Amino acid sequence: xxxxxxxxxxxxxxxxxxxxxxxxxxxxxxxxxxxxxxxxxxxxxxxxxxxxxxxxxxxxxxxxxxxxxxxxxxxxxxxxxxxxxxxxxxxxxxxxxxxxxxxxxxxxxxxxxxxxxxxxxxxxxxxxxxxxxxxxxxxxxxxxxxxxxxxxxxxxxxxxxxxxxxxxxxxxxxxxxxxxxxxxxxxxxxxxxxxxxxxxxxxxxxxxxxxxxxxxxxxxx
Length: 221
Fold this sequence. Notes:
Elements: H1 4-19, H2 25-42, H3 48-63, H4 71-88, H5 94-102, H6 104-111, H7 118-126, H8 133-150, H9 153-172, H10 184-206
Helix pairs in contact: 1-2, 1-10, 2-3, 2-10, 3-10, 4-9, 5-10, 6-10, 7-8, 8-9
């Protein structure tokens, strides 16, 4: 059975072709790269780790910009700026519908999972018995759930993607065993969420060529 992403990929490819003349070369390249990795993710339904990694690369292609600074700083700055822009252009509120109506279960599971909370690992690296992270974790979780119920999409999306960023780091920085049973649930939930959000995000970006999405890393030369 085909991945649910397959139909999204085909639709986005067609949308990109039909709108190509309205897009700058940089914007078209950015979205072409993102769709290509979304397609890669669609071929990894039986491999949760590779699916999530491919989805994050697709997402990274959407928001990464060349700010002339170190890549880690540029990535974090671009991350927050991108969330604000993408929500502003989501006139149909598709992101909220996805997070609240379709995938509220994985959203809540990810929010309540301490193993994808940055503060948890910061504390445990210094002292495995340190429980000081719980205060910030509880506050962040309550804020996310309130944002979910109150339709505060930028705040909710920021917290959700921050959790996914931690999960992404675990995989890409060698902090997790390949196909480990220890982290299966968060990897599965993360793949569901990114797989749902990315087609929406790419479609929004295709329909907003007038927005300044920034200069891409590694342009075609």
